[in-house]
Amino acid sequence: TSDKLHDELVKRVVSWAVMTPLLLGPVLLGAAWTIMAVAILSVLCYREFARATGFFRYRSLSVVVVLGIIATTFAIADHWYGFFVAIPPLTMVLLAMVAVLRDEPRGYTQRVGLGIIGFLLFGHCLGHLGYMANDADFRPIVMLIILTVELNDVFAYIAGKTFGHRKITPQTSPNKTLGGALGALLLTTTLVSTVGHFVFAGSGVDTPVRLIGLGLIVSVAGQFGDLMVSSIKRDIGIKDMGASIPGHGGLLDRFDSMLLVAPAVFHYIGFFRGFGLDQPTRIFTGS
């Protein structure tokens, strides 16, 4: 019904309206604030994941994941990209070793797998959003990504309720429709390529084809991030990952779309213009 559509739309807009300033505020304050905000977001999202999946019961493994997130934050703040990309395999190795020391072979694969998924999604993938802050012109780029990921979610919902009839993944997310996905793809790509022309003016990204490519990545990765977290929730039989936002679920329910967008956009943009990767580490090589 129209009332239900209106209520759900208001719910999505209000939740994003509350969450967006929490990220945009640090972005405006500077790189250090942005990196710290992303680190806190990573830990809080991981906490919801660990509690929802029961992974928090394995405290030693959970500590490894949190240490991985802390190490990732240090690598970002230090401009140490070599360490940043080395942390995922090192964390996997440590998870595998610590899990062995529990001497509980039954459930070993599940425990290690949950730990790896938890770190990769909330430590490494989200960490790319923080690493963007090392770029001299990171503010408009990060703000563009946050706002368009938010609007992509809203576009998908509106287009889905207006034009969508054919469901894409009825078992995973019954409300996701082909019309909604295509509508979001068209609107988000148009928005990103239009605003991106001003954000990336004079850089290697500022060509029609590359800006359209960026828009497609934001929309597709955003929708798949949402579906990925929906798959996890369906698998463990829950509706929301948490209840940290009264009436709107948890943080992870709001930021799931960002999980795959952050690394995809980071490497796509970095291919054409770099992303602060030319800066030397601060502690070990000076500068």
Briefly summarize what is shown.
By secondary structure, this protein is mainly α. The chain has 10 helices and no strands.
Account of the 3D structure:
The chain has one domain. The model has no long low-confidence stretch (mean pLDDT 87). The protein contains ten helices and no strands. Helix 1 packs across helix 2, helix 1 packs antiparallel against helix 6 and helix 6 crosses helix 8. Helix content is 74%, strand content 0%. By secondary structure, the chain is mainly alpha-helical.
SSE layout:
Blueprint: H1 2-29, H2 31-53, H3 59-77, H4 81-101, H5 108-131, H6 138-163, H7 178-199, H8 208-236, H9 251-255, H10 258-273
Dominant shape: globular
Strand portion = under 5%
Query: Please, how many helices?
Result: 10
- Main sheet properties: none
Keywords:
mainly alpha, 287 residues
